[in-house]
Design goal:
Layout (H helix, E strand, L loop, with lengths): L1 H19 L3 E13 L6 E15 L3 E19 L4 E10 L2 E6 L5 E16 L5 E18 L2 E13 L11 E14 L1
Antiparallel strand pairs: 1-2, 1-9, 2-3, 3-4, 3-5, 4-6, 5-6, 6-7, 7-8, 8-9
Length: about 190
């Protein structure tokens, strides 16, 4: 009985300490991308890894520095007028800030903004294009365990149009990505 009491106290202390010490997040999410621009892009897959560190811990909101790395795959781009078609992948890296509202509650909404670089690779011609990118959006964390949450996000990577063999009539394209996954808080 005495061992059970010690174990209960130790477990309670660990859970309380982990709740107060959660200043880092690591997330892995998966979903789809919907690109809007001057061409028909169709839909593609998205895989995102995200690391964030809390800078300010407030009662109402927390301020985080985040490092998202997003990979898009199976992208197709078509220009019906010129009979052009190609396939490409994209990597987006946009360090930024995130504000999480009511981070201590089981459901926490958040918004973010960042700037960085997009790397596009045309798998048909092996051409590469680097473009500047602005990242913004919102998400929701739903805590299912003290250190684990289910995460849903909607991100828009507003990037330059990849220069890879197509005429470039516009200067920007919207790379909207919806993802769902898991986040570990420690």
């Amino acid at each position: 009985m005495k061992k059970l009491l010690y174990l209960s106290v130790l477990l309670s202390a660990f859970l309380c300490a982990s709740a107060f010490a959660q200043s880092n997040e690591v997330a892995l999410t998966y979903g789809g991308q919907f690109v809007s621009g001057d061409y028909d892009f169709g839909k593609s897959g998205v895989l995102e890894a995200n690391i964030a560190h809390r800078l300010v811990n407030g009662e109402v909101a927390g301020l985080y520095f985040e490092l998202p790395l997003t990979w898009t795959f199976k992208n197709a781009r078509t220009d019906p007028a010129a009979a052009l078609h190609d396939h490409y992948t994209g990597f987006f890296f946009t360090p930024g800030v995130k504000i999480k509202v009511l981070p201590q509650l089981p459901i926490s909404p958040y918004g973010f903004v960042g700037v960085g670089l997009a790397h596009f690779h045309n798998s048909d011609t092996d051409q590469v294009s680097y473009e500047n990118v602005i990242d913004y959006g919102a998400g929701l964390d739903w805590k299912v365990l003290p250190l684990l949450s289910i995460r849903g996000e909607l991100r828009d990577f507003n990037s330059g149009v990849p220069r890879m063999g197509f005429p470039n009539p516009g200067s920007r394209q919207q790379n909207v990505m919806a993802t769902v996954g898991l986040a570990l808080h420690f």
